[in-house]
Design brief:
Structural class: alpha/beta
Number of domains: 2
Helix content: 25-40%
Number of helices: 11
CATH superfamily of the largest domain: Glycogen Phosphorylase B
Order of helices and strands: EHEEEHEHEHEHEEHEHEHEHEEHH
Largest sheet: 8 strands, mixed
Distance between the termini: 13 Å
Number of strands: 14
Length: 346
């Protein structure tokens, strides 16, 4: 039996936490099914806050309970965690280690003799990642999610990853495609933080209201800006146009997409945006403010300027194309790319 160790910042404790990095859940569940000769173990650095290892769909999860601890207390946590990790690797003789994000753990795991790669999945490609600044990775040992992220990495550290492993979705999770009436004009989903830029989302809805007074938008998610966003809605009389859904399950999010005409994503930066590809597969027209696609793809519209977005949404709502599923990359492709890092020459 082949053995692969994955190190992730967090992982769900059970099915009730489908919102915890859904992409990674789907990737490793698909990987386990596709490569049954590989025994996966996942170390969860920060969450869940469980004391003992547990089983997640046949994959062993080892929680370290970091709980996003800050320095200087983080030093003690890291020393204990590195000791545990050293014992774990020594006892199990893994064929390889896959680090998710370039952080303290991706730096520390370089001491082990097995194959090691780091999949840079988020803001770790940006200049403010101190581990990128002081521990520049070997370009041949890292992957990014897209050319967009690879170029961001080059601007930050003057290196490019040797490989791009893109995002994909688990198509089995989606409800049957809704070819009938879609009651949500514009839908958004994500963490309500400054980075996700949902103030801009609401400004677009406000501008659209002047053209289409009855426009209906829904926004799923929670976060630090929730009250500010709700205040903006109240101050601009958008209560009849915008509905805040709060944190909903992944299945509920897909159901909302299946009843939406347009998915609007206004983020200022993304490592990779799962909702891009989920929205396209759900039959939505996708408008994004980031050019994250590495190949031309149907029903994706890239715009950065507010009035360009307003005009595009207005046109789409007047003459909405029939809903159809659009796939970016298959999950089988993504799993094979990961597998080949460690076992292609075996």
């Amino acid at each position: 039996m082949k053995k692969l160790l994955v190190i992730s910042p967090s992982f769900p404790k059970d099915a009730s936490e489908s919102h915890v990095i859904p992409f990674l859940q789907h990737v490793f569940l698909a990987f386990k099914e596709q490569y049954q000769d590989v025994e996966l173990t996942i170390v969860a650095i920060h969450k869940p806050l469980l004391e003992k290892p547990y089983d997640w769909n046949g994959i062993k999860i080892i929680p370290l309970q970091g709980n996003d601890i800050k320095y200087p207390l983080k030093v003690v946590f890291l020393l204990k965690s590195f000791y545990k990790l050293h014992r774990l690797v020594k006892a199990n003789q893994y064929d390889g280690i896959l680090n998710l994000w370039h952080n303290e753990f991706s730096v520390f795991t370089q001491v082990f003799r097995c194959k090691k790669f780091t999949w840079m999945l988020g803001q770790d490609v940006k200049k403010d990642n101190v581990y990128l600044r002081y521990f520049k990775p070997n370009p041949n040992k890292i992957m990014t999610l897209s050319n967009y992220n690879n170029e961001a990495l080059y601007k930050s550290a003057a290196i490019r990853a040797h490989k791009i492993i893109p995002m994909a979705i688990n198509e089995n999770l989606f409800p049957p495609l809704n070819n009938e009436q879609r009651y949500i004009d514009v839908f958004g989903a994500g963490f309500l933080s400054p980075l996700k830029n949902y103030k801009f989302f609401l400004e677009i809805i406000l501008a659209l209201k002047a053209i289409k007074p009855n426009i209906k938008a829904e926004l799923a998610g929670m976060g630090e800006q929730e009250q500010d966003l709700k205040r903006f809605v109240a101050e601009n009389n958008l209560e009849d146009n915008v509905t805040f859904l709060g944190m909903i399950s992944h299945a509920a999010t897909l159901d909302k997409m299946n009843h939406s005409k347009i998915f609007l994503h206004t983020s200022l930066f993304e490592g990779g945006s799962t909702v891009y590809f989920e929205a396209l597969y759900s039959g939505c027209q996708l408008i994004g403010t980031l050019p994250m696609m590495d190949k031309p793809i149907e029903n994706f519209h890239f715009h950065e300027i507010k009035m360009d977005i307003v005009d595009k949404i207005s046109v789409l709502l007047e003459n909405l194309p029939p809903a159809k599923r659009v796939r970016y990359y298959s999950m089988d492709f993504v799993c094979k790319e990961i597998y080949d890092l460690y076992y292609k020459s075996a």
